[in-house]
Structures are given as C-alpha cells and as structure tokens.
Amino acid sequence: MTAHLPALQVLVPLGCAPLCLLLRRFRTVTWLVFLLAALSSLACAVLLATRVDDGPLHYEMGGWPAPYGIEFVVAGFNTPVLLVVSVVAVVAAVYARRSVGDEVDDRRAPLVYTCLCLTLTGLLGLTVTGDVFNAFVFLEISSLSTYALIAMGRRRRALLASFRYLVIGTVGATFVLIGIGFAYAVTGTLNMADLADRLTDLDGNRALYAAVVFVFVGLAVKMAVFPLHAWLPAAYGEAPSAVSTFLAAASTKVAIYVFCRFAFTVFGAGLVFTTMPVGEVGLLLAALAMLVGSAAACFQRDLKYLLAWSSVAQIGYIVAGISLATAAGVSAGYLHVINHAVIKGALFGAAGLLVLRLGSARLDDLAGLGRRMPWTFAAIVVTGLGLVGVPPTAGFASKWALVSALLDAGAWPVLVAVLASSLLALVYVGRIVEAAWFRDPPADLPADQPRAPVSMVAAVWALVLLSVYFGIDASLPGGLADAAAAALLGTGGA
Amino acid sequence: MTVFTLINISLLAILVATALTVSRLRALYEAAMLSALFSLVTACLFVLLDAVDVAFTEAAVGVGISTVLLLGGLALTRSREAVTPRRRRLPGAAVAILAGGTLVYASQDLPAFGSADSPVQRHPLTDTYLHQSQEDIGIPNTVTSVLASYRGLDTLGELLVVFTAGVAVLALLGPLAHPVDARRRDDLDLVDYRVLRVISAMLMPFILLFALYVLFHGDFGPGGGFQAGVIFAAGFVLYGLVFGLDKAQQVVPRVVLWALIPFGLLLYLGVGVVNMLLGGSFLDYDTLSSDPAAGQHLGILLVESAIGITVAAVMTTVFFSFANRRATR
Questions:
Q1: Interface contact B157-A141, CB threshold 8 A
Q2: Which of A73, A473, B55, B228 is the S-S candidate for B308 at Cβ 3.0 to 4.6 Å?
Q3: Which tens digits make up the pLDDT trace of A310-332?
Q4: Domain of residue B276, residue span
Q5: Do A70 and B153 lie within an 8 Å CB cutoff?
Q6: Looking at B78, B103, B124, which one is the last position of a domain?
Q7: Domain named Na+/H+ antiporter MnhB subunit-related protein: which ranges (chain B) (predicted)?
C-alpha cells in the first residue's frame, strides 16, 4: 500500500466527507470520522516526509502517465505544508468536539464536520497535485467548504463575512483559472513539470505575462496579501472557533505554498523574479501588510479580530521572505509558515476557550480574568510573545531567519517595516495582557462559570508546547524549510 | 468561412449587449432571465467551436437549472437590487477595466483562432487523446474519455464541488437548519391549472427517459453524468412546482434524496478504491476486466452513473431547500 501513499493522503479525508453526511444522525460518530480523516492524513504526511529524501515521489492517477493523466507529486517543497495542515487538522479535531458542540446547534454540527473534511481534502489536494487544472479544482473545493464553514458562525454577521469572502474569493479563483487557461493556450499542457519545460522557449510572450499576473493576483486573494486581505478579519473573526483555529493556521499557508509552486517550479524564477517585477511588488506589499496589519490589530476591540489582523501582518513576513527568491529568503518564509501556523492556531484556540466561557472574546470582557483562567492566558502570553518575536520563542527563530535573509539581500526598507511591525505587535499583545491582568474584574462576574473542557485546553497547549519547542530547538522546522527551499530553487520541474 | 465569422461576430455582439444590460438592470428577475439568455448564447458559441459537450452542459446547467435556482432564491428575498452609491462603484470599475485590459493585451500573443499549428494542436497530448484513446479506451466520444478516464480525478473533484454546494445549502437553508420554517402546503397552487397539470404529467416520463439516454449515450455522443443529473433534477423540480412540494417529496422522500447525495460520491470513490485493491492506481479502470478496453467501458459507465446520482440529488435538494422556506422579505 505504500506506493499509494500520495493518493491516500487526499483520498481518506475525501471519503470521510460523504460518510459524515451519511451518518449525520450520530453526532459523535461524525466527529470521530473527522478525527480519523485528520489522523490518517497526519500518518500519511509523516510517512511521506520520511520518504522524500531519496527524491520526489510521483503518483499517476488512473494509471495514465503524466502529462496525459493527472499526477500527484510529493517532494521536499510540499512535505512541510502537508505536515502543518495535518497537525493542525488533528489539533482542530480534538478541539472541535466541545467547541463545535457549544457554538453550533446539534443538527448542523455533523455538517460542520463534513465541511471540515472537505476543506482538509481541498487543502491537501492543492498541496500534492502536480497538475495546474487539478490545483484549481482543489482550490474550489477548499474555498466553497470554507465559505460554508464561516457562515456557520454563531452571530448573523458571520453570513455577511462569508458572503464577502465568497464574492472576492470567487473573483480570485476565476483569475487563477484565466491564468491557467492562458498557460494552456500557449503550451498545450496542464502538467506542472511539462509546463515548466515548454514555457522556457516562450520568451516575451504577452499571453504568458498575463497568465503570471492572473494566477498571482488570484492567489494573492487566497493568501490575503495586502491590499487583497479585506475578507480575512471578518471571516476569521466570525467563524466558529474550531474553524478559525484550523483556517488561520492552515488555509492561507497552503495558498502561499501554491504561490511558491507556481513561481519556482511552473513559471520559473527567471521569468517571475527577473523578467517580471514580482519580487519587488511582493516586497512592497509585504512591507505595507506588516505595517497596516499590525497597526490595525492595535485598534481592535475583539480578540479574534485582533488576531486576524495580526495574521495579515504575519503573512507579510512570509511573503517578504519568498519575494527575495533566495535560498535563505524562501527558507525563512517556509519556517515562518510552520511557526506562524502553530502560534496562530494556539491563539485562535485560546480565543475560542474565552468564547466558550464568556460568550464573547471582546477585550473589555477580559478585564481581570488573568487569574481566573490562568492556563488560557498563559497560553496567550507565551504564543503572543512568539508573535512579537521575543527570544527564545518560535517567532524569534523565523524572524531572525527573515532578518538575516533581508540583510543579505540589502532590502533595508523592508527590514525597517519588520522592526516597526514587531514593535506594534508588542503593543497589541500588550493590550491583551493589560486587559487580562492589570484591570479589575467587573464586580458582577458570576463565580460559578463552567470550567473549560480538558480536550480544548489540551489541544491549545499541544500547539503552545510545540511552538516553545520550535523556539528552543529549531532544527526540525529549520531542516524542513531548508529542504523545501532547496527543492524549489534547485531542480526546477522536480 | 465568412458566414461562420459573421455568425460568430453577431453572437458575440449579443453576448456583450446581454452582459451590459444585466449589469445595468436593477430588477433581479429580469437579470436572472437575461443571464439565462447569456448562457444560451454562450452555448451557441460553444457549438460553433465544435465543443458540443460543453455546449450541452452550458445549456442544461446555465440556462436550465441555475436559472431555476436563481428564481428560487429570488422568491425568498427582495427582487430589486439596492442602488450602490457612485463612489463605491469606482473600485469595481477599475478592477474590471484593468482585468479587461490585461485580457486584450494577452490576446495579442495567443495562437490565431482555429490555427492548426497552435501549441495545443502540436502537443502530443492532443494526438493521444484523439487517436490513442480509441485503442486504449475505445469510446467514440473522446470528451468522455478525457473527462472520465484520463482526467478522472478532476471530474471526481468537480463532483465534490457539487457535493460541497449541496452540503452548504443544507447547512444554511435546509430543514436541518430551520425545521420549523416549513412552508404551508397551499402556497403553491399551480396544480389547479388543468393544461399545466396534464402537459407536465405527460412530459414527465420523456424528461426522465431523456436523462437516462443522455447518461448512457455519453460514450457515443454529447452527454454524460452532469447533464443527465441536471435533467433529472429539472424533471423533479417541474413536478414539485406543478403538483406541490409535498407530492414531490412523496415520490422521492427527503431521506432518500439525502442518502443519494453521498451515495454517488462514494460510488465514484469506490470504483477508484476497487482499482487500487485490484493492483492498479486510483481510477485505473483497466483493472476492472481482463480486457483493458472493457474495463474502461465499465469504469466510465459506473462513474458517469455516480455523477448523475449525486448531481441530480444535490440539485433537487437545493431547489427544495429554497422552496421549503417561507419568504422573509
């Protein structure tokens, strides 16, 4: 069965989605099915990650050799993403049982698990596929199920947030499709490696330039790169907590990976970063994203919105690293993909714990709760320091890698933006700490609040401890990131 | 050639005019009808491009079921669009002009229309799909070969998209979300019109038979699971509209419908898993029989049926979910 691993990576969650719908009468069983999907995905990802050292693995769907059929490709550049998505999925699954049970009514909870399976399938498929049109199909699956998940938030505003994301996300996906269409028209193929081969002798083709522009603008929507980030704060702020945890940690990261895959292994770094000014535009937008995202986060009243705006800034760090198109830069970008996924997953999970106990995550409602909920707030502080980039946290490791990559490339203005954004991060993390520990609790606080469920706290703390471990010993994520950068910049088509 | 060009130009002109009108209309019923016209003209253009399968799908989905669903949605809400302030229209206009400009810029270097030595024609892929597929799969309609076998995973993905849409509607609108919102049964009284009743009762067997024909004839002519599923759904929707939703739900109970949605998907997936157990790759239909071509035939038939089942069940469910809700104006 090991030859089938790349296919099973995607197919098990895929099969779990219809099972969830079929078994919708048994809420616990549907949760177990989602947990099974996440665990099997993690098992596949770990097994695959141990096997790619000897070279990329290819899987031919339907037995048709590429480019006649669709192939899945697993190599150094996508195993870190598979691991991140799978780990976060397992954590979100453990977390979801009580969180979804609390925030979503019983009849709809099985459909939440169905959609979570679908999103997981879409994200994993997007990561392993070696075919550009197949990537679009998986992009659609993950996007559609994400819209549905966001709309199931507990407030009516969730519907508006979901609708906005649907409109802007659909425009983005259409742009990706138009770009893929142009690439097909000038090459006649949809296979990524075959495309890369045939695009090399198309110097100066205007349709190819347009293809690059359309694909990247479309992906920028999904990555929530400034100024196409407008959907993100409300979407993450209003989604059910388990969903925010999963999406904030996984979904933009996969879009960033797809950007890398297109830039380095389909269109080629020469076309994208030398002929076209994608790198310069990326650095500019990244710097703006850091400043605007962190500044906006400082003014939020709701913890989930604050975290979402901070994500806009953190995506800026990742985009800055990748836009350098150097081994150090791409590696720093990947490292921050891993670290930020762990940190933001933990923070959104902690925010969900607050929603569970207080019914809201407004900063004003957190007044004086630091002593009442020590574990939750300790988690927020530890990972919050990671957002700022204080040593020895995971955030410091990736920010240090980014800063040295920027120094090597001489990108001084971006460096200034990184430092300014870090200071602003100190401000918004400080606001949470100030509210929780240095304000008096309201006098009418009921004494007998329900205790936070152990499974949710454990899920959050698993991520917190992982982030602490990555801060102390960065060899595992660092090694994965270096391998990814080498795979992307080295062989080309893989 | 000139007649061909003229027809193309006039169809394109109609398309542009329709699009502009739709974007200016504030009355959403009219806009929905005009978008059906847009799809119809697109379908005609696809026919001219010799893409009959695509044209068929566009006609069945774009003109047929999506218009019905749009109208079903409009019945639940206001049917007039609020006027957007002029200031807020500017960003949209800028994006549209930029995107349009890029398209025009790109079109300069696209291969000439109908050119025989375009990259797509020269790529060995085209030759394999058109000629080699006759030996490998042996189905006259190569579109079906590409769709169900060479790129079978994409088709599974598209079916998953339809499935996702169905789940999303069930979660947000369906009786699972608001069981108390069921509509009173006397809301629809089209059954009192004798002509309508008799004609639709007469048409019903033909619609369902045609859907089956489209499903099983996809190997030889335009057609396949997606189109067949949509036609099936259109038949049920017509029945529900005329005879009332209660009657329609007696014919196909909700529980059955909801079981069919995952069933089609599981059948498709099951075919692939059986291929894996028989020693092939996922969706390698060769393994289904000792004769690879026979295996391909069987596999394609099974997955096309699977597509038909899920698509029909999802489309019917989506419409009934809309229709079952009381309008909240």
A1: yes
A2: B228
A3: 999 999 999 999 999 888 999 99
A4: 141-329
A5: yes
A6: B78
A7: 195-316
